[in-house]
Amino acid sequence: MAAARRLKRVVASQPGFVSLKSSHTSDTVSTRRKRVNKNKKKNWNKHSDINDVEGFLEDVRLQERTTGGLLSEKSDESLFFLDVGQPNKAEQKAPEPVEGKKRKGKQSRPLRIDLILQHDSLVSPPKDVLAYQQPNAKKLRRIAQKAEQLAAKGVVPRRQKRLQNTQPVVRTAKKAVTEANNNPDRGYYDLWGQETKESGNSWYLQQTGKKLVKRPEKLNEKPSVLPAVEVIAPGGSYNPDFFSHQALLQKAHEVEVKKQKEEDKIEKKLVVNKEDTATEETIFREQVEGLVEEENEEETAPNEEEEDQTGAIALAGKKTERQRKKEKAEKIKDQQRLAGRRQTEHRQQLFQLRSIKTSIKQQEQKTKAKQKLRKAKQEAQKAQPRRLGRLKFQPQDMEIQLSDELAGSLRQLKPEGSVLKDRFKSLQKRNLIEPRERAKFKRRHKLKYVEKRAFREIT
Length: 459
Fold this sequence. Notes:
By secondary structure, this protein is an all-alpha fold. It has helices at residues 2-12, 51-67, 76-79, 112-117, 129-132, 137-153, 158-165, 202-207, 217-220, 242-270, 280-288, 294-316, 321-350, 353-382, 419-429, 453-458. The model is unreliable at 23-29 (pLDDT under 50).
C-alpha cells in the first residue's frame, strides 16, 4: 500500500495536471499488510495495486473526450471569460435567421433527439490504416519511378506509342426518341394480340423471365417434308373410277414385281452349279497335280541360285570415282532438261489463253450443274426416310382391293389394315422415330415339368 500511495502522490504532483474528479480516497483506512514474496513473477500482477495509474489514465481520457485535450495545455481564453453583466437592448445583436418554423417571440432550438444523436466526443477518429493500403504498392511505386526517369530522358514506352498511333473511335450515343401519342405515323399496337410489347433492357427482361429465350432456327425445321396424314390415291375409294382403280392396281403390280425380282436374284446367288460339283476324276487330278513337274524344277533350281549369287557379288562391288562423276553429270543434265521443258510450257501457255478461258468456263458450267444436281438430290432426300438406327425402313404394304372385291356401298365395305400400324409407320417415314422390330421374348430358364400328386394318383 505504501508503494501505491507513493505513486499516487507522484502523479498528483505532476506540474500542470488538473484532475476533474475528486481525489479523496480512504487513506486513513488501514488494512493489515499481507506478506507476499515479490521475487516471483506470478505475484507481480496478482498483488500489485495499479488503481492509481488507471484512475490517472481514465482522467486523461475524460479530458480528451470533453475538452479535446488536457486542461493544463489549454489557453486561459478558452477556459475563462469576463462577465460584465447583461448588455443593453440596443447593443443586443439581431438573432440570425434559422431555417424551419419559428415560434412567436422565441428562437427555434434543435430537438432533443437531434442533440442525443450528435457526436459529442472531441477526440478525432482513429486513422484507418487499411484504407490507405494498396495491393502491390511497392511494385507500382517502382514502375512509376521508372516511368518518370524515362520521361525525363525523353523515352516514350511502347504501350504509349501504340495508344498514340491508334486512331480514336468516335462513338456517338443515339438518344432514344419517344414518339408522341398524337403522331399519325406512329406504329399500331394491338393490345389483345399474342405478341408482348417489350419495354426495358433486354438483359433484364431475359433474366427476370419476361423475355423468352430465342429459339434456334434449326428446331423450326421439320425432319421431313411429308405430310402427317397422306391421302390415298383416288383408286383406293370404296366406289372408285375405273381408270384410277386400274392405275392403282398397276402401281401395286410394279411393287410386287420388284419384290419378286429381288427374291429371284437371291435364289440365283444361292443356286449351286452342277459343273462346280466335285467328281472322282476331278478329285484325282487335284491329287496328281504338281507331282510330274518336280524333277524339272529340281534341275533348274541350282542354276538360278548361282545366277543370284553372281548378281549379288556384282552389286556389292564399289563404284569408281569416274562412275560417280558420270552419274552426277547425267543427273545435272536431266535437271536442266526438266527446267527447260517447264520454261517452254510456260511460254506456250501465253498463246493458249483463249483455250484456257474456254476450259475454265466449261469447268464452271460443270460445277454449277453438279451444284444443281446436288440441291435436287437434297430436296429429294427430304421426302425419303433416313437411316436413323440399325434397321432399314420397310414401307407398309399397299391396301388395295381387286375388281371383284369392290363393294357398292359403305355397308358392304370390309375394313382393312390397322390405324395404329399406319400411324406407327408414318412416324418412321417422317424421321420422327427410328425403324424398330418387336422385342423377341427369350426365356431365361428352361421350363421344368413336374407331375402333381393328384395327377400321379390317377395315372
